[in-house]
Write a structure and sequence with these properties.
With 448 residues, the chain is of the alpha+beta class. Helix content is 30%, strand content 28%. The protein contains 13 helices and 19 strands. The strands form three sheets. Strands 12-13-9-8-1-2-3-7-4-19 form a ten-stranded mixed β-sheet, sandwiched between helices. Strands 5, 6, 15, 16, 17 and 18 form a six-stranded antiparallel β-sheet that branches. Helix 3 packs across helix 4 and helix 8 packs antiparallel against helix 9. The longest helix is centred in the N-terminal third of the chain and has 18 residues. It is globular and about 75 Å long. It starts with a strand and ends with a strand.
Length: 448
C-alpha cells in the first residue's frame, strides 16, 4: 500500500511555481492538500473577519489545485480556509471556488464545507470543561466571551474523514489543526495514524523543510505501512535528514511531544534517512490517543484603535539621546490629552533596539534610526489626534545641542500619519473538552 499527497505551499495564496506543481501532478498524487491559515500574524484577521491573502492570490493558487484535482480525479482539501477559518473566511473561500468552477465549466463535483465556528453560548455552557492553553493565558470568563467578536475551534481529522466518506471531491474546512487535513486523507485510505500525522506536520508548510527552505514551493509525501518519504518538486531544492528533522520540531513547545485534537504524537524514536534525489525517509513515529478529547478555541476581541507614523532620524546628537527625548515628548503630549480618553503612546527605534527592546545586547546605535510612532486609543479619532500632536511636537522639539530648527524628522510618505483602524487581541486561547470529535463541526454539501 502506498498513498501520495501533494502539498503545493505553506499557506494557500502564498504562491508556488507552476512548474513545481506540474511536476507534482506527474507523480499522480492520491490527494492535493493545503493549509490555508495560521495565527502567526496575530488575532487581527480573526477579529476583523478579513483574509490572510488577497483574493487574486488565493484564486490563482486554488484554481491550479482544483484543475489538478479534476485532471486526476482526486480530492482537494483546504484547511483553515481564508486564514483564520471562521465562517466569514470559509464563505469567502467558497465564493471564490464557485467562480473557479463556473469559469472552467467544471461539473459533477461534490463540495463539502466544514464550519468551525463555536457559539458563545455553547462555550459559556462548557466553561467547566475549558482550560487555558499554556502559562500566561487567563481563565476564560463570561465577560471575556461577551467582548469576543467570534470563536473558532481547531478540528481534527474526524470531520474531514466524514466528508471523504460522503464522497466529497473538494473539501473547504474552517479552522483546522494544521496537520489534520493531510492526516485525514491518509488515515481515510488506511494509513497508520502516527505516520499520517507526522507526515501532515511536515507537509503543512510544504517546502519549508527543504534546502533552501520556503513555504512557497511544492512537496510530495508518500506514505506506506512502515514509513513515509518526502521530497521537493523543484530541482533546485533537496531534503536532508537535518532539514526534515528540524521541521518536525518547528513551532513546538516540546522537542518531540506534539499534542493535537484527541491525539499526542511522540517522535522521540524517529529516524530520518537521506536517499538519492534529495528525498528523506522517516520511520519510528508514535502516537497515542489522549484520555480526553480537547479542541483548541481561538477568539479575538477589539481593544483599541491604532494610528502610526514612520520617520527617519539622522542627527547624531538626537540619536545619542533619542529615548530621553521621546520620554519628554510622550509626557508632554499625554498631559495635553489626559482628559480626552484612554490612549497609549509607543516609540519603536529601529537601528537601536527596535526588534529586541530592552534585552538588546548591542547598545551602540546605528548612524541613522527609523522611528515608529504608535498611538493606541479608545477611538480612531483620538488616536489620530494624539498622533498628530506627537508627530508635530517631535518634529520641532528643541533638544539640547540641536543646531537647526528646520525639523528633526525625515518622513518617507506624505501624508505622514496612517490611521490603522481597530486593534485586536486573543481573548480566547483555550482548550475545551468535547465528547465527540464531530459535534462542533457541521458539514454542508452541495453539488456542481
Amino acid at each position: 500500500m502506498e498513498y501520495k499527497i501533494l502539498s503545493p505551499c505553506g499557506i494557500l495564496g502564498y504562491g508556488f511555481p507552476k512548474e513545481s506543481f506540474e511536476n507534482g501532478i506527474l507523480q499522480k498524487p492520491d490527494a492535493i492538500v493545503v493549509d490555508a491559515g495560521s495565527t502567526d500574524a496575530g488575532p487581527h484577521k480573526l477579529g476583523a473577519g478579513t483574509a490572510i491573502v488577497s483574493k487574486t492570490a488565493f484564486k490563482r493558487d486554488l484554481e491550479l489545485l482544483v484543475l489538478g484535482g479534476v485532471k486526476l480525479n482526486v480530492p482537494v482539501i483546504v484547511g483553515s480556509a481564508g486564514g483564520s477559518g471562521g465562517k466569514v473566511h470559509v464563505d469567502w473561500s467558497v465564493s471564490i471556488l464557485k467562480e473557479i468552477l463556473e469559469e472552467n465549466k467544471i461539473q459533477n463535483k461534490k463540495i463539502a464545507v466544514i464550519y468551525a465556528d463555536i457559539e458563545k453560548d455553547k462555550v459559556k455552557q462548557n466553561l467547566n470543561k475549558i482550560i487555558p492553553l499554556g502559562e500566561g493565558v487567563p481563565e476564560l470568563t463570561e465577560t471575556r466571551l461577551d467582548e469576543t467578536v467570534g470563536i473558532v475551534a481547531q478540528m481534527g481529522h474526524e470531520p474531514i474523514i466524514e466528508a471523504l466518506k460522503n464522497k466529497a471531491d473538494i473539501i473547504i474546512c474552517g479552522r483546522a489543526y494544521d496537520p489534520s487535513p493531510f492526516a485525514a486523507a491518509a488515515i481515510y485510505n488506511g494509513c497508520d495514524l502516527a505516520l499520517s500525522y507526522h507526515l501532515g506536520k511536515i507537509l503543512e508548510c510544504a517546502a519549508l523543510c527543504a534546502v533552501p527552505g520556503t513555504a512557497k514551493d511544492c512537496m510530495l509525501g508518500i506514505i506506506n505501512e512502515s514509513a513515509f518519504t518526502v521530497f521537493p518538486l523543484n530541482k533546485n531544492r533537496i531534503c536532508t535528514s537535518v532539514s526534515v528533522a528540524a521541521h518536525t520540531f518547528y513551532e513546538k513547545s516540546h522537542p518531540y511531544i506534539l499534542p493535537g485534537p484527541g491525539i499526542i504524537s511522540n517522535l522521540e524514536q524517529c529516524e530520518f534517512e537521506e536517499t538519492d534525489g534529495g528525498a528523506v525517509i522517516v520511520r519510528g513515529s508514535k502516537l497515542e490517543k489522549s484520555d480526553k478529547y480537547y479542541i483548541k478555541l481561538e477568539g479575538a476581541r477589539k481593544t483599541a484603535y491604532r494610528a502610526f507614523v514612520i520617520a527617519g532620524v539622522r542627527d547624531p546628537i538626537l540619536i545619542s539621546k533619542i529615548e530621553e527625548v521621546e520620554n519628554i515628548i510622550k509626557d508632554e503630549v499625554s498631559d495635553n490629552y489626559k482628559d480626552y480618553g484612554d490612549f497609549k503612546i509607543n516609540f519603536i527605534n529601529y537601528g537601536l533596539n527596535g526588534v529586541m527592546g530592552d534585552i538588546e545586547p548591542i547598545k551602540t546605535p546605528a548612524h541613522e534610526l527609523g522611528v515608529l510612532f504608535e498611538v493606541l486609543a479608545e477611538t480612531q479619532e483620538l488616536a489620530n489626534t494624539v498622533l498628530s500632536t506627537l508627530r508635530s511636537t517631535f518634529l520641532h522639539y528643541g533638544y539640547s545641542g540641536r543646531k537647526s530648527t528646520a525639523g528633526n524628522l525625515a518622513f518617507p510618505f506624505a501624508p505622514s500619519d496612517v490611521p490603522f483602524g481597530a486593534v485586536y487581541e486573543f481573548s480566547v486561547y483555550h482548550l475545551m473538552e468535547v465528547d465527540d470529535a464531530l459535534e462542533m463541526f457541521p458539514i454542508f454539501y452541495f453539488n456542481v
